[in-house]
Design brief:
The complex is a heterodimer. Chain A has helices spanning about 15-20, 20-25, 45-60, 70-90, 105-120, 140-145, 165-170, 195-200, 250-255, 290-305, 310-325, 355-365, 375-385, 400-415, and strands spanning about 35, 100, 125-130, 150-155, 175-180, 205-210, 230-235, 245-250, 265-270, 275, 330-335, 345-350, 365-370, 370, 390. Chain A is an alpha/beta fold. In chain A, helix 4 crosses helix 10. Chain B has a three-stranded antiparallel sheet with strand order 1-2-3, sandwiched between helices. Chain B has one domain (about 10-145): Sufe protein. Chain: A. Classes of the chains: A alpha/beta, B alpha+beta.
């Protein structure tokens, strides 16, 4: 996706930036220095976000859109300001197209229920692929079962990219939805969203992009290339857990029925029927995660103060170094495409050391990674491994931390009596 | 945090497991998979007429802790009576491992134990249960067990 206007307000210095994240300087319980390489699972929060959360809870906590009092007014203004920040961040046409959810999973489920179950019919096709997170597979399996629509999978190339040679065959007038991640949470693969969006629209289908991994690392513009739905989470974007976003094009959101029903999402309630509130409230039943949503706004302020050019430059440096050093390390196999097709995620295995053992031994050295199937069982079946170890970088990681990763692999191999 | 988790005792059992494989005619067998991490363990027991475990075999895939623990468990249960297996509890299993495990890794260390316990319950439900046949999935374990 292309770069919206951004004006970073400070020059990038990784050591300076790290001081904004108190957790990075805290010794671990075993005394080791934290080397946090699990950003794909959740990222750390800068002081700006932590301070904002405290500010909300300590100085103007109230429910939004309800209280006729000073606290209620203030919190509502703050929440709507956060919504507008998100709107500008992804370049949505209007803030009403930004729906607060609990996270990417809920955002995708919202579309699967409120759009999928209303508009899909037997014979329609939902196009996904094996690299998707379970959150972008299982909702569509259930939707397919409920509607009679058919799930189809885009095959992958040997290096873990979508095989474009199948697009013509698979994206047809039967296709009603293409659901795809912009960046694989395991392989780091950057998918061709522009081409998929164009092809989906040519056949009258809509495209949903899972931006959980891409939005924190790459500029996102929902109008260039034009996409219909974008789902992402706050906590991978240096913001709080419990809050996420669904962007939807107004026309689609208006055609959909509500997902969750209750307070805030109604216009009028009568004994037999009700009418719905305008966007975005129609999809925001109940009380929102208020401080978290406002905190997400602060996280976006923080990211924009650095600018994606600097973020990308730092993360690319780390990715390049990891992709260079890991294959030189004995026993290591890495999965996924080459540097130019990938975001700052690398999954790998070490021969004769199970990923869980690897993660445990890394932890002894303070190196935090993820081990397992990373909520991508079909992808691990495709890779023909039961589990992988995954490192996922953020801009606050350093080149010395890549060296610490390599040292940790040697340590694990040593403990397993392999060197 | 435990620097000694991967001590020689665990690694010896991981690298040279006790009775990894299959019994020709098990009296009872059971498999389980930890869906969170994908570790798999199958345990097969041969019981004699006096209710003693004559032989115990396991097969599986997964981390060093889950596999070594299953090996240690097989070694431990041979010669024990069914009653003794009923009395055998999770803390006993964890003690057998000789290394303290964090809550997360206890799931690995107790996977074989869980399989054994599930098998004991099914043994109670049916006095002479037919042994589970290995499934296609179990066969893949056979193929990769080396």
């Amino acid at each position: 996706m292309s770069t919206p206007l951004e004006t970073p307000s400070r020059p990038f210095d990784v050591h300076d930036v790290r001081r904004d994240f108190p957790i990075l300087a805290r010794p671990l319980p075993n005394g080791a220095t934290l080397v946090y390489l699990d950003n794909g699972a959740t990222s750390q929060k800068p002081l700006l976000v932590l301070d904002k959360l405290r500010e909300v809870e300590a100085t103007y906590n109230a429910n939004v859109h309800r209280g006729i009092h000073q606290l209620g007014d203030r919190v509502t203004v703050e929440l709507e300001a956060a919504r507008e920040k998100i709107q500008r961040f992804v370049n949505a046409a209007e803030s009403a197209e930004i729906i607060f959810t609990s996270g990417t999973t809920m955002s995708i489920n919202l579309v699967a229920f409120a759009w999928g179950r209303k508009f899909l019919k037997p014979g329609d096709e939902i196009l996904i692929n094996e690299m998707e997170h379970h959150a972008n597979i299982v909702p569509w399996q259930q939707t397919a079962k409920a509607t009679g629509a058919k799930l189809r999978y885009i095959p992958l190339t040997a290096d873990g990219r979508l095989d474009a040679s199948h697009f013509d065959r698979l994206i047809t007038t039967k296709t009603k939805l293409v659901a795809v991640t912009a960046m694989s949470n395991v392989l780091g693969t950057l998918n061709p969203i522009r081409e998929l969006a164009a092809r989906a629209h040519q056949v009258g289908a809509v495209i949903l992009v899972d931006g959980a991994q891409s939005v924190p690392h790459l500029p996102t513009d929902v109008r260039d290339p034009a996409i219909d739905f974008l789902a992402f989470s706050g906590h991978k974007l240096y913001g709080p857990t419990g809050v996420g976003v669904l962007y939807g094009r107004r026309e689609l959101l208006e055609a959909m029925d509500p997902f969750l029903c209750g307070g805030n999402m109604i216009n009028e309630v009568h004994l037999e029927s009700s009418t719905w509130a305008d966007l975005p409230s129609k999809f925001e039943a109940g009380t929102l995660p208020i401080a978290e949503a406002i905190g997400l706004g602060a996280a976006i302020d923080y990211v924009q103060s650095l600018g994606f050019a600097a973020i990308h430059a730092q993360e690319s440096k780390l990715l390049e170094k990891a992709l260079r050093l890991l294959p030189q390390t004995p026993g290591v196999t890495i999965y996924g495409p080459s540097f130019e097709h990938r975001g700052s995620i690398v999954s790998f295995t070490v021969e004769k050391v199970h990923p869980h053992d690897l993660a445990d031994l890394f932890d002894q050295k303070g190196v935090a990674i993820r081990a397992g199937h990373h909520c991508t069982m079909p992808l691990h079946d495709w890779l023909d491994v039961s589990a992988t170890a995954r490192v996922s970088f953020a801009f606050y990681n350093t080149e010395a931390e890549v060296d610490a990763l390599i040292d940790a692999i040697h340590y694990a191999r040593h403990k397993f009596r392999l060197e | 945090m435990n620097e000694e988790l991967y001590d020689d005792y665990i690694l010896d059992h991981y690298e040279c497991p006790y009775h990894k494989g299959h019994l020709a005619c098990p009296t009872c067998a059971h498999s389980e998979k930890n869906p969170l991490c994908g570790d798999q363990i199958r345990i097969e027991l041969k019981l004699n007429d006096t209710g003693h475990v004559e032989e115990a075999f396991f097969n599986g895939k997964g981390c060093a802790i889950s596999q070594a623990a299953a090996s240690i468990l097989c070694q431990h249960v041979e010669g024990k009576t069914v009653d003794e297996l009923h009395r055998f509890q999770a803390p006993d299993m964890l003690r057998l491992l000789k290394v303290p495990l964090t809550a997360t890794r206890q799931r690995c260390g107790l996977l074989g134990f869980k399989v054994l316990k599930a098998m004991m319950y099914s043994l109670d439900a049916s006095p002479t249960p037919p042994a589970q046949q290995p499934t296609a999935n179990d066969e893949s374990i056979v193929a990769t067990s080396g």
